[in-house]
Design a protein that fits this description.
20 strands; about 40% helix; Alpha-Beta Plaits; Dna Ligase, domain 1; six-stranded mixed beta sheet; 24 helices; alpha+beta; four-stranded antiparallel beta sheet; binds 2'-deoxycytidine-5'-triphosphate; 3 domains
Length: about 725
């Protein structure tokens, strides 16, 4: 859905740079003999000469189009050079083009904020560079204007072909121009220089649009190709949009554009000017209505994001006609190959850019044999991404099977898959300073590691016999153990001083996560499980299968709750702080401020009550308490991970600062699980305030920092307990008011 953003107060200079017939250029650079020849890059699939995916401008002159296949292209252009896209693992390997694209981006990014919009297009915010130029060397004082800049197309100015260069020079150097046009003139000169540099350094030509916003810059870059640039002064916008067909506008190519055409009888963007903002809002909602009103006037406040790297990584393959995959074994075979490539790419992203992918998605197109319901789409399925090829393969297959089950419903019929892809998205920088960074830098990337010993059928029973409403429950502790042990050893090697009691092995929490990489297995297992539960098939009774119960056991000494003060003595009689909060009190808008892995877990738990409503075995109260517990637990774990060593060289975190949830409690000595007044279970754990390493406090969200600093101050000056922690409010929606 388009998002309406207000017009920025100050004029901006935005460029959209688009490479010309990009794959062809990359191939021509590799094989210079192809330069100047009609050339096209074709897909690996050789049926009818292969599908054309990039066509050189020489070939376009013969009428060759991207929609053609190689054989057809040869008919209209017998001399066409058809180059097959590189192949790896039985599918197109785009690395050559990706790297070529990055070469260009790194040159363009030297002049301003740069957003890589696709493999071959980039937005640049040149406002600052243009302002500096206007201040220091305005075009009117330049002795010579760059030749490439003089070739610019300036809408509304250079429509008259006679003495185009003279017109351009005059427009660029006008001393009486308004400030906005002067900035655009500077932008045009800067972009001309950049394009020249790109050509010199990479041998690639590109085209560009220069305007006051992204929308207009994008429209302009496609207006004059190849190797040209187009400037959109504000005075030309009305005419430009008056003749622009609705469907040519980004985000109007689909249903919204069709509705404008049929319901409002709008043919061009300019036609929208006849409607008031209220009328458009009434029909399409407030946001879309305002967006439409804005674009009719050429208003677009969208920012150029500072992003040189792709937003996601995807690998896909199509299986047209008779190649359709008809068995889970053949799907698994291809998914494995796609996942192998995906895994390599996210690993290299992690190594080079220190970014972690968080979500794995499987998309497919499929049909049912002899079925009239051919409109039913194969549902896309996602889950938290676990690093490691085998894990990605395993999870992708689970997602596919889950999608297949949903796609087939109760029908026991044949099916075929015509396209398959896997995507890694939500690529986020590794938070600096936390133990996960150290772990990942040790080349042990594993945002999660568990459940590999759970068979696919355990989570998604595929056979009709498994769809009888029988619940699948798998205890998290059982699942996590093997991996937990394995990775903890690595953590031990790395840290050297970590000691834990054997019983800790069974714990599954953020606490463990921050204590070492082993715990990530548990952590993301939780999330993974949660996600799988979301996607779990419905039983015949309509209830979802749950693979495990959302119950996290925490360490924690025995405690006796004090109902009214929130301060409780522990076994040794020391005073402890307590506070209560409920999952419903967590303010989702605050979650973004938490360390990533904690975010994920909290988000997982936020989903729990929804699942619990449909679950026979998981009570929402348990989930709710666990969720609250996880958040506190995260902090607890965080501190423990950074705890200073005691004089004996081992970490000490037995607690004096007792944190509990769920209201007044009676401790259960052996498990750390307690009941509140209403008999609901809740979890407890302990934290020694002396174990908090002040040097890591900076890494916490600011409000929690303040709270922790408060604890430390109080602890230093007097051994008094705090009542009513603001952390409660941190996660509470009440905080907003
Ligand atoms: N591409 C592809 N499949 C498509 C469309 C494009 O694989 N259906 C690839 C090949 C293109 C590259 O993406 O070279 C960039 O696509 P563009 O749409 O920008 O087209 P070109 O760069 O090829 O040509 P133009 O000069 O028209 O931008």
């Amino acid at each position: 859905m388009p998002i309406a953003r207000p017009k920025p107060k100050d004029a901006r200079v935005i460029a959209h740079v688009d490479m010309d017939c990009f794959y062809v250029q990359a191939e021509q650079r590799k094989n210079p003999e192809l330069r100047g020849l009609p050339t096209a890059v074709v897909q690996y699939n050789s049926w009818k000469g292969g599908a054309l995916i990039a066509v050189s401008y020489e070939a376009r002159r013969f009428g060759v189009k991207r929609s053609m296949r190689g054989d057809e292209a040869k008919k209209v252009c017998p001399n066409i050079q058809l180059i097959q896209v590189p192949v790896a693992r039985g599918k197109a390997d785009l690395n050559l083009y990706r790297h070529a694209g990055f070469e260009v981006v790194s040159i363009l990014a030297t002049k301003g904020r740069c957003e890589r919009a696709s493999i071959d297009e980039v937005y640049l915010d040149l406002t600052d560079a243009a302002k500096s130029m206007l201040l220091e060397t305005p075009p009117e004082v330049l002795e010579a204007i760059d030749e490439e800049a003089l070739k610019s197309h300036i809408l509304g100015v250079t429509d008259d072909i006679t003495d185009r260069e003279g017109n351009v020079r005059e427009w660029l150097c006008r001393s009486d121009a308004d400030h906005e046009d002067k900035l655009l003139a500077c932008g045009a000169i800067i972009i001309a220089q950049l394009r020249t540099k790109v050509l010199e350094e990479t041998k690639f030509t590109c085209s560009a649009g220069i305007a006051h916003n992204k929308m207009l810059a994008k429209l302009a870059s496609a207006m004059h190709k190849p190797a040209q640039q187009t400037v959109v002064p504000s005075s030309s916008v009305k005419d430009l949009l008056a003749s622009l067909p609705v469907k040519k506008m980004k985000q109007l190519g689909g249903k919204l554009g069709s509705s404008l055409q049929t319901d409002l009888e709008v043919k061009t963007i300019g036609d929208l000017l006849q409607f008031t903002e209220e009328q458009l809002q009434e029909r399409y909602g407030i946001n879309t209505g305002t967006w439409l009103w804005n674009i009719a006037r050429g208003i677009n406040g969208e920012e150029v994001e500072d992003r040189l790297l792709p937003k996601s990584h995807g690998c896909g393959k199509t299986f047209p006609g008779p190649q359709a995959l008809k068995t889970t074994a053949s799907v698994e075979n291809w998914l494995n190959q796609l996942c192998e490539e995906l895994s390599e790419r996210i690993q290299s992203d992690l190594d080079q850019n220190k970014r972690l992918a968080h979500t794995l998605t499987v998309h497919a197109k499929a049909f049912k044999v002899n079925d009239l319901d051919f409109h039913k789409k194969f549902p896309s399925k996602s889950c938290p991404l676990r690093y490691g090829t085998a894990k990605i393969q395993e999870d992708a297959m689970k997602l596919f099977v889950s999608g297949l089950r949903e796609f087939l419903g109760s029908q026991n019929i044949g099916w075929g898959v015509t396209s398959l892809s896997v995507t890694a998205s939500k690529l986020l920088d590794i938070p600096h300073g936390t133990s996960i960074v150290r772990f990942l830098q040790d080349k042990n990337p594993s945002t999660s590691l568990a459940c590999s010993n759970v068979s696919m059928e355990e989570i998604f029973p595929l056979h009709p016999a498994d769809q009888n409403g029988k619940q699948n429950e798998v205890a998290s502790e059982e699942i996590g153990d093997d991996n937990d042990t394995l990775v903890r050893d690595k953590a031990l090697c790395r840290r050297g001083t970590w000691t834990r009691k054997p019983k800790d092995k069974a714990k599954c929490s953020i606490l463990n996560y921050f204590q070492g990489s082993n715990s990530s297995s548990c952590l993301t297992k939780e999330a993974l499980d949660g996600s799988f539960q979301d996607h779990a098939p419905l039983s015949s009774s309509g209830n979802q299968h749950h693979s495990r119960v959302n119950k996290i056991k925490q360490q924690g000494g025995p405690a006796e709750a004090n109902n009214d003060t929130g301060t409780h003595p522990n076994q040794t009689g020391q005073k402890i702080d307590t506070w209560n909060f409920n999952i419903e009190d967590i303010d989702p808008s605050m979650i973004d401020e938490l360390p990533l892995e904690i975010q994920r877990e909290v988000q997982g738990w936020l989903q729990s009550p929804k699942r619990a409503n449909t679950s026979k075995r998981v009570s929402s109260i348990e989930s709710s308490n666990s969720s609250a517990c996880m958040t506190k637990q995260a902090l607890d774990g965080f501190f423990k991970d950074h705890a200073p060593l005691s004089s004996s060289g081992s970490q000490n975190y037995s607690g004096t600062n007792k944190i509990e949830q769920g209201g007044p409690a009676k401790a259960n000595n052996s498990t750390g699980t307690h009941r509140n007044q209403t008999g609901q279970k809740f979890d407890m754990w302990t934290l020694n305030i002396e174990d908090i390493d002040p040097s890591i406090i900076d890494e916490l969200p600011s409000e929690i920092q303040r709270e922790v600093q408060g604890w430390l101050r109080r602890h230093k000056h007097a051994n008094t307990s705090k009542r009513g922690s603001s952390i409660v409010h941190y996660f509470s929606s009440a905080k907003k008011s």
